[in-house]
């Protein structure tokens, strides 16, 4: 059965077109996906990301457990910070990519012996149940508690150059306005803060206040914030953000714009660039893997072997040198004047770039063809089209 987020009725009221994504009925676009894309690049876009998962990991062994369950070193993450990581299987295949927030520390003191660590693990939509189950299975023998709060949690994102100002407007009123406004301003990239915003009650009374976990990570290449909050408060925060952000150019945005934005930013998508048949070194995510930590994390032996031998294929960025765009699944060939070059890879994501004005694509190719400046051709339904390997990301914001 298709799932609905707590904001589904709002999306219908706004005239959204819907699509199935990871078992969720999600807004694809509200009008023009190009206009939504440009709004995020030039002003701000509002996204419902409540299909993402939220899994809490807590207990005295939380850091050691996550260092065994995930490929990164989560023990070194300070409270208030976040880290991008991966959960892999024994073969080194990627089960999912994740963001992990450290919510509470585990520092022991005379006053608090055996102090508890607490983390929030955020997996992708369709993978959330799989990740929660894998974490629970891997927790055997550790003093930790795994709680999947995905069904009770909403996630709203504000992305774009105007995002910070819009968040200031959200927290401006109410008893906690000054502290929350300071938290927004001072929040660095890949970090989180607890803020309180006034609810819809008269005068923003304290009893109506909404507690939000505010993160600053993003998946668009722009500045932006993510708001984790209870389902029953999501609609009033969504409405308030649209009201505050409207004069600044904020509009609701769907998954189509989110996909074109993340592609320009060179960010991988699970199911396209990442899968169980892909290892981190192939995907250019080798730095995410910590082989210096002492824990024997799941997939470590396989990933050590891949690092030693080198990956069999490499994810690259491709810039179209003509007008036609390559799409996911299109073959990539070694360039030959007559178009007869052999196949050396496949595109995983591709489309015309609204910001840059030319086609862009991500593709897995043989390592020998991964150098910047290498010319290749893409088979566009029988017709070869010239592309060039370029550095990622395709787009990088200047401020």
Automatic annotation (TrEMBL):
It comes from the Bacteria. It holds the Pfam family GCV_T_C. It is an enzyme of class 2 (transferase). It catalyses: N(6)-[(R)-S(8)-aminomethyldihydrolipoyl]-L-lysyl-[protein] + (6S)-5,6,7,8-tetrahydrofolate = N(6)-[(R)-dihydrolipoyl]-L-lysyl-[protein] + (6R)-5,10-methylene-5,6,7,8-tetrahydrofolate + NH4(+). Residues 313-395 form the Aminomethyltransferase C-terminal domain. The glycine cleavage system is composed of four proteins: P, T, L and H. This is Aminomethyltransferase. The gene is gcvT_3.
């Amino acid at each position: 059965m298709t799932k609905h987020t707590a904001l589904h009725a709002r999306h219908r009221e706004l005239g959204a077109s819907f699509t199935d994504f990871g078992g969720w009925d999600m807004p694809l676009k509200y009008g023009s996906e190009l206009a939504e894309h440009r709004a995020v690049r030039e002003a701000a876009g509002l996204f419902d990301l409540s299909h993402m998962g939220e899994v809490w990991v807590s207990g005295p062994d939380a850091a050691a457990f996550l260092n065994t369950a995930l490929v990164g070193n989560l023990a070194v993450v300070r409270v208030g910070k976040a880290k991008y990581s991966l959960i892999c299987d024994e073969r080194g295949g990627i089960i999912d990519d994740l963001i992990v927030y450290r919510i509470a520390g585990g520092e022991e003191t005379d006053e608090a012996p055996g102090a508890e660590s607490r983390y929030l693990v955020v997996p992708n939509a369709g993978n959330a149940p799989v990740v929660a189950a894998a974490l629970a299975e891997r927790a055997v023998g550790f003093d930790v508690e795994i709680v999947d709060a995905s069904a009770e949690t909403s996630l709203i994102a504000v992305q774009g150059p105007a995002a910070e100002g819009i968040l200031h407007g959200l927290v401006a009123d109410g008893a906690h306005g000054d502290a929350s406004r300071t938290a927004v301003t001072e929040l660095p990239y890949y970090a989180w803060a607890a803020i309180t915003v006034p609810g819809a009650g008269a005068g923003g009374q304290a009893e109506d206040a909404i507690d939000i976990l505010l993160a600053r990570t993003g998946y668009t290449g722009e500045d932006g914030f993510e708001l984790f909050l209870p389902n029953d408060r999501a609609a009033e925060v969504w409405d308030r953000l649209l009201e505050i952000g409207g004069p600044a150019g904020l509009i609701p945005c769907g998954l189509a714009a989110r996909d074109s934005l993340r592609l320009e930013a060179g960010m991988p998508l699970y199911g396209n660039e990442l899968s169980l048949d892909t290892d981190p070194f192939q995907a250019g995510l080798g730095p995410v893997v910590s082989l210096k930590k002492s824990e024997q994390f799941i997939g470590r032996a396989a990933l050590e072997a891949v690092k030693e031998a080198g990956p069999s294929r490499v994810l690259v960025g491709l810039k179209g040198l003509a007008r036609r765009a390559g799409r996911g699944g299109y073959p990539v060939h070694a360039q030959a004047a007559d178009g007869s070059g052999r196949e050396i890879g496949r595109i995983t994501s591709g489309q015309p770039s609204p910001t840059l004005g030319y086609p862009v694509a991500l593709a897995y190719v043989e390592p020998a063809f991964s150098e910047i400046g290498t010319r290749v051709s893409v088979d566009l339904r029988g017709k070869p089209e010239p592309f060039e390997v370029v550095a990622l990301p395709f787009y990088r914001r200047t401020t």
